[in-house]
Design goal:
This protein is mainly beta and about 170 residues long. It has 1 helix and 15 strands. The strands form 4 sheets. It has a 6-stranded antiparallel sheet, with no helix packed on it. The longest helix has 15 residues. The chain is globular, with a radius of gyration of 21 Å.
Length: about 170
């Protein structure tokens, strides 16, 4: 029997699952879990059909624009995931700031009577973070030396630091 290589097939196989899981029903409303361009159709527990359409180049830009299209005006919550790495986030509805908690690692809840065409704009500022991993941090079989990590929002890159330079940064020494 043929057994496909694990990583070669599981990586691409996961992409449709992420896209399928971008919006979930939650607490009589909808939760936006992942960010990217999408169009999601749902029926709320109260029976109202709702379409959410996101326009964005995220993660290549910080702004995500979501248009809410209930079949008729409807009162329900929308939840937006605030990534744990997010240093600064803003959320507006129809250009007005929303009074809700915008805590990294949680979901922002926006409860209101949604009208067809309402527009939510969420900005997820992605700071650039540099970290030096400890010498004993195991990344691979050959983990000798120091490793440096650079991340910007959801993007992370790691490489072996062959220089002995020391640069002071807010997250440690390089």
């Amino acid at each position: 029997a043929h057994e496909p290589l694990c990583c070669n097939v599981n990586g691409p196989r996961a992409l449709p699952l992420i896209i399928e899981s971008m919006v979930y029903g939650y607490d009589d409303g909808l939760a936006v879990v992942y960010y990217g361009p999408f169009e999601a159709h749902a029926t709320l527990p109260a029976g109202t059909a709702v379409t959410l359409t996101a326009e964005t180049e995220y993660p290549f830009e910080d702004e995500v624009r979501v248009t809410v299209q209930p079949a008729a005006a409807a009162d329900f919550p929308l939840f937006f995931r605030i990534p744990g790495w997010c240093a600064d986030v803003t959320l507006t509805v129809n250009g007005q700031a929303v009074d809700t908690a915008l805590t990294p690692g949680t979901y922002a809840r926006v409860q209101r009577t949604w009208q067809p065409g309402d527009r939510v704009v969420i900005n997820l500022h992605a700071p650039i973070v540099l970290e030096k991993l400890p010498v004993n941090f195991r990344i691979s079989v050959d983990a000798s030396g120091c490793w440096s990590l650079v991340s910007a929002g959801p993007w992370t890159s790691c490489s072996k630091d062959r220089s002995n330079s020391v640069v002071t940064f807010r997250h440690g020494y390089f």
